């Protein structure tokens, strides 16, 4: 059962192997709003194309390095 008060789940490293599989599992559990944050150090942006084919929708994503304080998310995708 999905808790209804959650608005969005942030997955860091969502373009990588573990992150993309986490996004697939969250989708299978019924979570609708997932935001992937990745700096593409060990992954590629085209991973989101493969995710879209698997889950049937585009994943919201932001290119950002969460370990770098100067690289902050100023606006979330709608």
Report what the structure shows.
The chain has 78 residues and is of the alpha/beta class. It is 27% helix and 17% strand. The protein contains two helices and three strands. The chain has helices spanning 17-28, 47-55; strands at residues 9-12, 34-38, 60-63. Strands 1-2-3 form a three-stranded parallel β-sheet, covered by helices on one side. The longest helix is centred in the N-terminal third of the chain and has 12 residues, at 17-28. The radius of gyration is 12 Å and the shape is globular. The mean pLDDT is 86.
User: Main beta sheet, described?
Assistant: 3 strands, parallel
pLDDT < 50 stretches = none
Over the alpha carbons, how many angstroms does the gyration radius reach? 12 Å
- This entry's quaternary arrangement is single chain
Q: State the order of secondary-structure elements, H for helix, E for strand.
A: EHEHE
Shape: globular
